[in-house]
């Protein structure tokens, strides 16, 4: 499995590609950061992020894209920029038909370090160890992107199986309700018009 992890951000958007399967050693394929100038117009910054992510997709051909799920922060401006960069990453993947998975920061930290409250230094140290690197990737956004990819490789298949099981259970319940005649169907709207009154 090859996964492109994306740590979204307007100024620095971390990207990292990891190969591997759960239970076996992982391999880093590439890591980097897509940067945009803070004083540039927003639309141009988003275009630059799109072009950067497209270049990574072209070069590495991932099977999945894992993006950090945006969560509420005190700094609304920061979370808006993160959400916009996240949307660009999802758009680039969806346009190519590549499945996208969203993982929360605590989920990624727990997967990589065993603690959902780990700091960036701990995440970087574990990424370095798991991928057998000489030193932690810099800046931290790059290490976070690799951590996202690792998290998806380890947790993605189990998450997908759970979602499939839930969907299958709902389908079976709907079929059972339909067979028992208890499934409610929406009534068709009454399209008949009332007769018009006579005019003088």
Automatic annotation (TrEMBL):
It catalyses: Endonucleolytic cleavage at a junction such as a reciprocal single-stranded crossover between two homologous DNA duplexes (Holliday junction). Pfam families: RuvC (PF02075). GO terms for biological process: DNA recombination; DNA repair. The gene is ruvC. The RuvA-RuvB-RuvC complex processes Holliday junction (HJ) DNA during genetic recombination and DNA repair. Endonuclease that resolves HJ intermediates. Cleaves cruciform DNA by making single-stranded nicks across the HJ at symmetrical positions within the homologous arms, yielding a 5'-phosphate and a 3'-hydroxyl group; requires a central core of homology in the junction. The consensus cleavage sequence is 5'-(A/T)TT(C/G)-3'. Cleavage occurs on the 3'-side of the TT dinucleotide at the point of strand exchange. Belongs to the RuvC family. Homodimer which binds Holliday junction (HJ) DNA. The HJ becomes 2-fold symmetrical on binding to RuvC with unstacked arms; it has a different conformation from HJ DNA in complex with RuvA. In the full resolvosome a probable DNA-RuvA(4)-RuvB(12)-RuvC(2) complex forms which resolves the HJ. Keywords: Cytoplasm, DNA damage, DNA recombination, DNA repair, DNA-binding, Endonuclease, Hydrolase, Magnesium, Metal-binding, Nuclease. The active site is at residues 7, 68, 141. One of its GO terms (molecular function) is magnesium ion binding. Its main location: cytoplasm. One of its GO terms (cellular component) is Holliday junction resolvase complex. Binds 2 Mg(2+) ion per subunit. This is Crossover junction endodeoxyribonuclease RuvC. Mg(2+) 2 binds at residue 68. InterPro entries: RNaseH-like_sf, RNaseH_sf, X-over_junc_endoDNase_Mg_BS, X-over_junc_endoDNase_RuvC. Mg(2+) 1 binds at residues 7, 141. Its EC number is 3.1.21.10. Its cofactor is Mg(2+).
């Amino acid at each position: 499995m090859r996964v492109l992890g994306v740590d979204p951000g307007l100024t620095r958007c971390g990207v990292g590609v990891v190969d591997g399967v759960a239970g076996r050693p992982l391999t880093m394929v590439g890591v980097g950061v897509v940067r945009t100038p803070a004083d540039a117009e927003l639309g141009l910054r988003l275009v630059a992020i799109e072009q950067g992510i497209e270049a990574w997709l072209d070069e590495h051909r991932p099977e999945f894209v894992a993006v950090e799920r945006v969560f509420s922060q005190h700094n609304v401006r920061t979370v808006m920029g993160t959400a916009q960069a996240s949307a660009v990453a999802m758009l680039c993947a969806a346009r190519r038909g590549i499945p996208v998975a969203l993982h929360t920061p605590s989920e990624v930290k727990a997967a990589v370090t065993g603690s959902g409250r780990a700091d960036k230094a701990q995440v970087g140290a574990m990424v370095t160890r798991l991928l057998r690197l000489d030193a932690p990737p810099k800046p931290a956004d790059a290490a976070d992107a690799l951590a996202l990819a690792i998290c998806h490789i380890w947790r993605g298949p189990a998450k997908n199986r759970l979602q499939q099981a839930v969907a299958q259970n709902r389908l079976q319940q709907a079929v059972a309700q339909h067979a028992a005649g208890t499934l409610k169907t929406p009534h068709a709207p009454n399209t008949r018009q009332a007769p018009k009154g006579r005019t003088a």
